[in-house]
Amino acid sequence: MCDAVMPVCVGINGFGSIGKAVLFSSFTEPTVKVVAINDASMSIAYIAYLLQRESPLSAEDRASVVVVGEFICIQGSHKIRVSQKHDLVDIAWQDAGVHYVVECTGLSFTRERCWGHVTGGAKGVIIAGQSADAPVLILGANEADFKVCPVVCAGLPVAVALAPLIRFLHDQYGIEEFSYTVIHGLRPAEITAGRSKNPQDWRQTRVDIGDIVPYIHTGEKTMDKVFPALVGRISGSAFQVPVTRGCAVDVLVRLRQPVSKELLDETLKGVATGRLSEVFLYLNEDFISRDCMPNGKLYYDAASSHALREGEAHKLLLWVDLDGSYAKRLLSLVVFFASAGSQ
Questions:
Q1: Rounded-to-10 torsion of CA 187, 189, 191, 197
Q2: What are the residue boundaries of the Glyceraldehyde 3-phosphate dehydrogenase NAD(P) binding domain, all occurrences included (predicted)?
Q3: Under CATH, which number does the domain 8-134 receive?
Q4: Distance between CA atoms of residues 333 and 146, nearest Å
């Protein structure tokens, strides 16, 4: 349980790859504490097993993980209530001391469907994925326009990673076109990860460890909501490749105001230690995908980027640890959401 002087208490609904990443990331975030998990298809014993085997906890903490009734206990003091409810109203978040819920099932993508969390006692809900009608909130991109409401949408992982950079480039130089290709490792078939829901997309049924597989990417829907002035100017595609860690994003951006590669690099280096210091990192070194860290930041690979047509366009190479960084950004969103709701 949490009280007013403790970190923001979080509940996770859905313990797939994103839900698990949110829990694991919370262990290094003193401002939040996960106190409840609901997953209709996952047993408490299995969640405890994942904590013992895969979590970033210390060896001592992993060894201390035990199941006591409906709780998973870590070192005896950190208790996480686990439930298997299908109806959101029945989860009773308030009884577990939850303030805000991160919706990770990929099933409750509307405000109406998520309202069951609020009825169950949560102060607010953050949808980890896209939503048909909930407002999109991405820190570093549109929080200045945020109006407090009970349900918000975080957007897809790639959109969350790219949006702050897009905001900065558009404010600084004006964007005529922003086209990107995402290249990441094979992922579980989860809607929250942006994987195709199209039953006719037969390629998804054949994904194997040795394949390069294109898939339907819908991140533009998030971008259009965050950047209404850029509707039709942002496009994306994605490929799954046989790597175990890290995600590369190849970007072609055409700018309204031309800028040299040298000046752009200096500007991005400055913003990485200033305005975007929490979400953006400047690199000028030999970097590969396994070097990505789940720190919530998008890496700009200056050494692998270059200018075109005398600075009218730029090819940018970006890196990100997709799930880990997305989880980090979700937790930052929880803290912002809680702070905005208390004002």
A1: 120
A2: 8-149
A3: 3.40.50.720
A4: 12
Reported pTM: 0.90
Question: 157-322 adopts what CATH topology?
Answer: Dihydrodipicolinate Reductase; domain 2 (3.30.360)
Q: Which residues are annotated as a binding site?
A: 39
Looking at the predicted structure, is the pLDDT value of residue 172 above 80?
A: yes
- Closest of 184, 258, 174, 213 to residue 17, by C-alpha: 184
What gap in Å lies between CA 126 and CA 195, rounded to an integer? 20
Residues 246, 140, 113, 229: is their CA dihedral positive or negative? Answer: negative
**CB of 127 closer than 8 Å to CB of 151:** yes
Q: Give the pLDDT confidence of 227-263 residue by residue, as tens digits.
A: 999 999 999 999 988 888 899 999 999 999 999 999 9
The pLDDT, as a whole number, for residue 193 is 39
Domain boundaries along the sequence of the chain: 8-134, 157-322
* Residue at 135: amino acid letter: P
Known binding site for NAD(+): residues?
39
Pick from 331, 328, 278: nearest CA to 99? 331
